[in-house]
Amino acid sequence: MNLLDCVAEPSRLLAELRRVLAPSGTLLLATPYDWSTRATQPAHWIGGHSQRAAHDGAGEKFLRDLLTAGGHAQSVAGLRLCGEVANWPWHTRLHDRAAMRYETHLLALQRACDA
After folding, report:
1. How many CB atoms lie within 10 A of CB 98?
2. Nearest-angstrom CA–CA distance, 78 and 37
3. How far apart, in whole angstroms, are the C-alpha atoms of residue 74 and residue 112?
4. Residue 47 in contact with residue 62, Cβ under 8 Å?
5. pTM for this model (two decimals)
6. 17 within 8 A of 92, measured Cβ to Cβ
7. Alpha carbons 98 and 78: distance in angstroms, whole number
């Protein structure tokens, strides 16, 4: 939960998750695409930061492209999208008087047997 947008290179994280996942293993990944330049430089943001781009700055389509062989130059081979929910609710408590509510992109990913 909220890991993909908190690392320096999200596409590299996806490749590492594929590497450590057992063949035919499944993982759940949820991200609100809540990017911060302190964690991830804009060039590595999945979906980018421009609403003028072909994907309108939305991470969902861009992440799907990364998981499709040849869908993007940084595609992650060997992970297959099994299912997804576009607006999975997630609430986190910051402290006694504050909480955050997110709509996350929830994905079920499976490692290909031959990967």
Report:
1. 8
2. 29
3. 18
4. yes
5. 0.80
6. no
7. 40
